[in-house]
């Protein structure tokens, strides 16, 4: 393939992509292929001679696309969305074509300075206090790991990187029972160890961690000679949307001199709407905040923003400057790789720049408000059905429910079967979770191009299943 082919097939790809997205409702949301189908359709050995781009592109359409679960499908109500608005996709194409490696200011000044400006735009748009800076990470998992590493180093006076954890008192990290599994991984990778993640029970409609039990756990660890290192709170937990009371937890963190990280990976995008900010009242007390524009804001994956109250703390944890990475003869610059685990950095700010300018903050707010309002309507409609039990009410665009039937002893098994039937049919896509050891079904709206009619389809699907239980 040369650059003339690039033009020819680029046009074909753009036409295919536009048609795919405009007609995406014709596909089943989740791929129905059996395991091994795609693998076995591809030759066992690589081709020795070049193959035509027409043949490769045809194979993409016939062999790959049927094995794709369509995350941009307007009836994708599973997990959380992974959106890709047109402006973001277009910008990503430009960034990929340039192929910039944006690890240092000098390796692409525009990438660094645009990222700084975009972080400031988002800070303003989300109502965060002046002074918060930040960076764009790949995913919330990386942002959470950097926060945990920072907790570790701060609690050890920045000696852990040099001397390790052997022979020291146990470091302890506190989080609610509702936090994402990425927190567990961060604890593993940091060397702190899973046994030192202290899970605090939740309470109330928002399923927030109990502040009194948090205080008791910290005091208990101090008495036992352990080292409290940090707290991880959630705004919009993955399972059921739980939201910790950031203000109360922030006060505890301040009193105990503990680093506070807030995981708002999904719900953070909704904070561009002023009326939802009550879900993270006190957020100014956080040291680190992560949210994923690639979930609900429309930015193409991957794109995760980490706000930092004092960036120097994270820099002290992660920065390393061998001679070959130093920029000489230039003052007042920032090398954003000093704040991330990865040295290499993609030009992720470009897609946010295109997206925010193309949609405007008003357009992005409208999308999120529609999703929340449509979810509320859907919740009230299925709550009236005889065979439905609401388990957790909506938090933004997420709630959980389950099917019930008189005389059925194993409701977990019943719901697992019905959920499998729904997903195999392909009309909508839902995922399960467990709440108080109950197997329940999650519903979350968030696909960038969904419409009210897609919620109506979901209702008819659920109604049909309740009628089959009679």
How does this structure look, described?
It is a single chain. With 470 residues, the chain is of the alpha/beta class. The chain has 15 helices and 13 strands. Strands 1-9-8-7-6-2-3 form a 7-stranded mixed β-sheet, with helices on both faces. Strands 10-11-13-12 form a 4-stranded antiparallel β-sheet, with helices on one face. Helix 4 (86-98) runs antiparallel to helix 13 (349-383). The radius of gyration is 24 Å and the shape is globular.
- Specify the CATH architecture of the largest domain: 3-Layer(aba) Sandwich
CATH superfamily descriptor of the largest domain? Type I PLP-dependent aspartate aminotransferase-like (Major domain)
Question: Radius of gyration in whole Å, from Cα?
Answer: 24 Å
Q: Which runs of at least 5 residues are low in confidence (pLDDT < 50)?
A: none
Number of domains: 3
Helical content stands at 40-55%
CATH class of the largest domain: Alpha Beta
The main β sheet shows up as:
7 strands, mixed
Q: On the 0-100 scale, what is the average pLDDT?
A: 90
Q: CATH topology of the largest domain, anyone?
A: Aspartate Aminotransferase, domain 2
């Amino acid at each position: 393939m040369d650059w003339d082919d690039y033009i020819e097939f680029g046009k074909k790809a753009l036409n295919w992509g536009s048609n795919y997205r405009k007609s995406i409702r014709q596909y089943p949301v989740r791929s129905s292929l059996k395991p091994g189908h795609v693998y076995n359709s591809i030759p066992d050995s690589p081709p020795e001679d070049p193959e035509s781009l027409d043949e490769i592109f045809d194979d993409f359409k016939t062999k790959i696309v049927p094995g794709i679960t369509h995350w941009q499908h307007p009836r994708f109500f599973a997990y959380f969305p992974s959106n890709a608005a047109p402006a973001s996709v277009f910008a990503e194409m430009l960034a990929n074509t340039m192929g910039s490696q944006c690890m240092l200011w000098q390796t692409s000044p525009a990438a660094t300075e645009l990222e700084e400006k975009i972080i400031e735009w988002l800070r303003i748009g989300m109502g965060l206090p002046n002074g918060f800076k930040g960076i764009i990470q790949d995913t919330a998992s990386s942002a959470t790991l950097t926060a945990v590493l920072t907790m570790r180093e701060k609690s050890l006076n920045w000696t852990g990187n040099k001397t390790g954890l052997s022979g020291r008192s146990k470091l302890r990290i506190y989080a609610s029972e509702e936090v994402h599994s990425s927190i567990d991984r961060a604890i593993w990778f940091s060397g702190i160890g899973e046994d030192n993640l202290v899970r605090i029970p939740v309470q109330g409609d928002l399923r927030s961690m109990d502040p009194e039990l948090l205080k008791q756990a910290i005091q208990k660890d101090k008495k036992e000679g352990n080292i409290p290192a940090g707290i991880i709170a959630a705004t919009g937990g993955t399972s059921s949307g739980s939201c910790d009371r950031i203000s109360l937890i922030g006060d505890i963190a301040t009193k105990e001199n503990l680093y506070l990280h807030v995981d708002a990976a999904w719900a953070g995008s909704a904070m561009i709407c002023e009326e939802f900010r009550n879900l993270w009242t006190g957020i100014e007390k956080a040291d680190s905040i992560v949210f994923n524009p690639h979930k609900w804001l429309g930015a193409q994956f991957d794109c995760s923003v980490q706000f930092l109250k004092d960036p120097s703390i994270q820099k002290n944890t992660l920065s390393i400057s061998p001679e070959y990475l130093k920029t000489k003869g230039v003052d007042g610059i920032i090398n954003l790789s000093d704040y991330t685990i990865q040295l290499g950095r993609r030009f992720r700010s470009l897609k946010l720049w295109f997206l925010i300018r193309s949609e405007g903050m008003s357009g992005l707010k409208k999308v999120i408000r529609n999703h929340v309002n449509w979810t509320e309507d859907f919740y009230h409609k299925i709550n009236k059905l005889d065979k439905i039990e609401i388990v957790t009410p909506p938090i933004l665009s997420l709630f959980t429910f389950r099917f019930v039937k008189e005389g059925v002893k194993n409701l977990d098994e019943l719901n697992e079967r019905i959920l499998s039937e729904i997903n195999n049919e392909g009309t909508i896509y839902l995922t399960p979770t467990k709440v108080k050891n109950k197997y329940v079904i999650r519903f979350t709206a968030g696909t960038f191009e969904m419409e009210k009619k897609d919620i109506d389809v979901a209702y008819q699907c659920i109604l049909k299943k309740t009628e089959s239980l009679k």
